[in-house]
UniProtKB/TrEMBL annotation, chains A, B:
The entry's keywords: Hydrolase, Lipid degradation, Lipid metabolism, Meiosis
Residues in PLD phosphodiesterase domain copies: 83-110
Transmembrane residue ranges: none
Record flagged with keyword Hydrolase: yes
Organism ancestry: Eukaryota, Metazoa, Chordata, Craniata, Vertebrata
Protein name: Mitochondrial cardiolipin hydrolase
One Pfam family hit: PLDc_2
CDD domains: PLDc_vPLD6_like (cd09171)
A cellular component term, taken from the record's GO annotations: mitochondrion
Coiled-coil blocks: none
GO MF entry, a single one: RNA endonuclease activity producing 5'-phosphomonoesters, hydrolytic mechanism
Protein origin, superkingdom: Eukaryota
Family recorded in the similarity comment: Belongs to the phospholipase D family. MitoPLD/Zucchini subfamily.
GO terms (BP aspect): lipid catabolic process; meiotic cell cycle; piRNA processing
Length: 149, 149
C-alpha cells in the first residue's frame, strides 16, 4: 500500500492509534473522508474482524480523492443520506465506549493545513448520545428506504 | 431588527439561551458565521457589556451573508487567520466556564438543513483545553502581526 500508517507523535498518528484500539466495533459518521492513512486503518480493522459501519454524505462521497469507494470495495458497509442538506457529523465510536468527535473532516487538507479540534470522550452520557444518533441515522439511511426518482 | 431571537424549544433557541447566559465573557472561534439570529444574540451580549472576542476564517468572513461585518460595525473585536488553510473550529466559550462545540457552523443552512451535533461541556479539563487554544489563536491573529504583501 502506498500510504503507510503514520508513526511518531503527530495528531494523525494519535488518532490512528485510538482507532486501532478497536476490538469489536467501529461506527463512523463522516461528512468527508479522503485521508488515505485513515482509510487504511479502517480497512485493517475490517480485516481483523472488527465490525465497521460507515455513514457518510451523498454529495461528498463521490468527490475526487474520496476513500468511500475503496472502503466499499473492501467489503465495508456504507450508508449515505438522500437529502440536499449535508450529513455534516464527523465522529467515530470505538467499541461503543470511546467517542472521537470535533471539527475535523477526515481529509488530508484538514489534517495538514487547517486549525481543527478533536475531542476524545469516554463519559458514557456523551458516548450514548452519539451512539443513539448513529443508530438513528443507520436505520434512516437503510438502502431499503432509498427512493429513486 | 428583522430577525427576532428564536423562542420555543428548537435546537437554535436552546443554543441562543446558552449564549445569553453569559455575564462576563464570550469567546467565539467560528469558521463560518452567517446566521442572523445568532449574530443578534452576540450583539445583545456586547451591548450588555459582556466582553466578546471573535476569531474567524479569512476566506469565509467575506462570503455573502456573513455576519462578521455587522458585528465589527457594532464594535465587536474580530481577528482572522492569514493562511490558505481554514480556521475550521466552531466553538464558543461562555464565561470561561461552558464550552459549546461540535460540527455546527453558525449558518442558516447548517441549522435548517444539515445533520449536526453540538456538545455543551462544563468539565474544566475540556473547557481549559479549548480556552488555551482560543488564547493562542487570539495572540497569533493579533493584527499587529499581520503582514501585507
Amino acid at each position: 500500500c502506498p500510504c503507510p500508517l503514520p508513526s511518531g507523535d503527530t495528531a494523525l498518528s494519535r488518532l490512528v492509534r485510538r482507532l486501532l484500539s478497536a476490538r469489536r466495533s467501529l461506527d463512523l459518521c463522516l461528512f468527508s473522508f479522503s485521508c488515505p492513512q485513515l482509510a487504511r486503518a479502517v480497512q485493517l480493522l475490517h480485516r481483523r474482524g472488527v465490525r465497521v459501519r460507515l455513514v457518510t454524505d451523498a454529495q461528498y462521497m463521490g468527490l475526487h480523492g474520496s476513500q468511500i469507494g475503496r472502503l466499499r470495495h473492501a467489503g465495508i458497509q456504507v450508508r449515505h443520506d438522500q437529502h440536499s442538506g449535508y450529513m455534516h457529523h464527523k465522529f467515530a465510536i470505538v467499541d461503543r465506549r470511546m467517542l472521537i468527535t470535533g471539527s475535523l473532516n477526515w481529509t488530508t487538507q484538514a489534517i495538514q493545513s487547517n486549525r481543527e479540534n478533536v475531542l476524545v470522550v469516554e463519559d458514557s452520557v456523551y458516548v450514548k448520545a452519539f451512539q443513539d444518533e448513529f443508530e438513528r441515522i443507520w436505520e434512516e439511511y437503510n438502502p431499503a428506504n432509498y427512493s429513486f426518482f
